[in-house]
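Format notes (please read before filing issues)

Several people have asked whether sequences and C-alpha cells are stored in separate files. They are not. Every record keeps both together, in the order shown below: the sequence lines, then the C-alpha cell lines. Line labels are part of the format and must not be stripped during preprocessing.
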Amino acid sequence: MPKLALAIAQRVINQLRRDHRTLGLILVVPVVVMTLIGFSMPNRNAQLEITAPALIAMMALFFSFLLTGISFLRERSQGTMERLMVSPVSRIDIVLGYLLGFMIFALIQTLIIFFFTVWVFNVPYKGALWEILIFQMAIVIGSVTLGIFISTFAKNEFQMVQFIPLIIVPQVFLGGVLWPVEQMNGFLQGVSHFLPLTYAVEGLRGIMRQGQSLGEVGGDLLFLLGFAIITSTLAALTLRRGVRG
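Then the structure lines:
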C-alpha cells in the first residue's frame, strides 16, 4: 500500500482514538444490540444456532456501513477532504487510506459481535475460527467501501442515515436473513444475486453451520472481494471535496 495511503489511515485511526464517545459507542452498541436480539428469542439456544450466522453477517454490514458513512461524511464537512484533494495525493490513495483506517474499527465491532454471540449465548460453530474471521474481514471490507461510496452523495448526517433504509433494509429482506432466498419469487431471487449480504449470509452459514472451508465458500468470498473492488473504484471516481461538491 502506498505511503500516502498509510499516512491517511494513521490520521483516521488517531482521530477516532481521541474521540472517546465514538470509541465507546463502537464498543458498547454491538453488545447492547446483540443482547436485546438474543434475549428476545423465546427458544434462544435453538434459534440462535440457526440464525446466528445471518445475524452476525447482517450486523457486520450494518455497523461497518454506518460507522464509515457518517465518519467519512464528517471528514468532508470539516474540510479535510478538500485539503487532501488539493495536495499531491491521488484519489486511490485517499480511498485506500480511509478504507484501512475505518476497517480497523469496523473489524473490531464485527469481532465483538461474533465473540459475544458465540461465548455469551453459547452458539456452536463447526468451521475453523481463522476461516470465519477471514470471511468476516471480507464482509467488513465490502461494507466499508460501500459506506465510503454512498457517503459521497450525502450532504449531511441526516441524508446519510436516510440511505440505511435504501441500502441496508432491502438486503435484510432479500439476502436470506429472515427467510431462505429460494422461497422468494423468481424476480426477487434474481435481485438477491446482486446483493453482498446474500453472499455474506450464505458463506458464513456454510462455514459456521456446515463446517465448510474457505475454498468451499470461495464463490461467496470472491463476490464480496469483487464488490469491494468495484465500490472502492466508484468511491474514488465520485470523490468530492466537501459537502457542497
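For reference, the curators noted about this record: DSSP finds eleven helices and no strands in the chain. The mean pLDDT is 88.
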